[in-house]
Each structure stands twice: as structure tokens, then as C-alpha cells.
Write a structure and sequence with these properties.
CATH superfamily of the largest domain: Immunoglobulins
Strand content: over 45%
Distance between the termini: 48 Å
Helix content: under 10%
Shape: elongated
CATH class of the largest domain: Mainly Beta
Number of domains: 3
Largest sheet: 6 strands, mixed
Strand order of the largest sheet: 6-14-13-8-9-10
């Protein structure tokens, strides 16, 4: 296993000829080439990389307007003090919501919890219609691992009918009359 970690440069192996410190390498020998970056790089086997525990179970989440919803990101093999980032994809742009347990959104309806080792939860309270959309849980690995969740916000429909199941629109009743009303709620998750 090869591990290269540093703050100022990201090193990658290439097979092309290049000049390094005035020495020329042959086309068949590996060359270290530097790219300016502020990235921690770890080259390792895929079996040791973090992975999402049950990615298929939370691809789509449905919540009701005004209610709270929890989005889960379950990650196995997340090293040490490493945490996930939560982002929201809106109009082609990513907006950072949280890194670990620290919120970066000014929207107080968001909160983040670590329920058990590896189970990161983004909670959205008092859902609004415009909360519907794509949310991402990102693991800071190389390459980055991304779990995308689509949040559907359902707006319940309320229908009030009379005793014959006719929707009540503009109806007039005499004072003292007995009326029977039915209230039907549909589109509830």
C-alpha cells in the first residue's frame, strides 16, 4: 500500500518522461509530478476505503409539508476523527450545510447528529416546498465518495364534502340546520 500525505502538494504517478530536479527520467519509469493543491491524498486499495453501508435504502426520502424529516448517511470504515459533509444541490450549485457536527447554514431548521458510529443524520424541521431536491453526503476520501439523496416534499390535499360526497364550495344553510361534513386528507406520505 502506498500512502502519500502532505498539505501543500498532491503527488501523482505518471508514466511519461519528465524533468525532475534537472534529471531526465526514461519513458518507462514512473515519475512523480506535482500539482498545486491543498488536498490530503491517500492512495490505497479499494477494500480499505470508506463505503456507504446501505446506499440503496435512502436514495429517495419523502416528507410532509410542515413536518420534520431525517436523511441518513451510513458510512463504514470512516477513519478516526473523520466526518462527513452535507451539501444541497440547488440550481446547479452545491451549498454547504454542515461538516461533521458543525452547521454552515444560517437556516436554523437544519441540525446534524451522529447517532451511532458511522450513522450521520441531517434533520430538516418544518419542511417547506422548496426543501425538495438533491442532498449529498460526502466522505473526504481520495477520490471523494458521494451519497446522493432526493427529498420529496408532499403537500397534503384537504377536501371537505357534504353528506353526498359533493365538495363544499359556496353553500348556504339555514340557521339551525343540521349538516354533515366529511374531511378527506390525501397525499400523505
Amino acid at each position: 500500500m502506498l500512502v502519500l500525505i502532505f498539505l501543500s502538494s498532491l503527488w501523482t504517478w505518471t508514466d511519461s518522461s519528465a524533468f525532475i530536479s534537472g534529471a531526465r527520467s526514461s519513458p518507462s519509469s514512473p515519475v512523480l509530478r506535482t500539482t498545486r493543491s491543498a488536498v490530503w491524498s491517500e492512495e490505497t486499495t479499494t477494500s480499505a476505503m470508506p463505503f456507504f453501508a446501505d446506499p440503496e435504502s435512502s436514495l429517495n426520502v419523502t416528507g410532509q409539508l410542515g413536518a420534520a424529516v431525517e436523511l441518513h448517511c451510513r458510512v463504514n470504515r470512516l477513519p478516526g476523527e473523520t466526518s462527513v459533509s452535507w451539501l444541497r444541490r440547488q440550481e446547479g450549485q452545491l451549498r454547504l450545510l454542515a461538516v461533521g457536527l458543525e452547521l454552515y447554514s444560517s437556516d436554523s431548521r437544519y441540525s446534524v447528529r451522529l447517532l451511532e458510529p458511522g450513522d450521520w443524520q441531517l434533520r430538516v424541521r418544518s419542511l417547506l416546498e422548496n426543501d425538495q431536491g438533491h442532498y449529498e453526503c460526502q466522505v473526504p476520501s481520495h477520490p471523494p465518495r458521494v451519497h446522493s439523496i432526493y427529498l420529496h416534499v408532499v403537500v397534503p390535499e384537504l377536501e371537505i364534502t357534504d353528506e353526498r360526497d359533493v365538495p363544499i364550495k359556496d353553500k348556504f344553510y339555514n340557521s339551525g340546520s343540521t349538516i354533515q361534513l366529511k374531511c378527506r386528507l390525501t397525499r400523505v406520505p
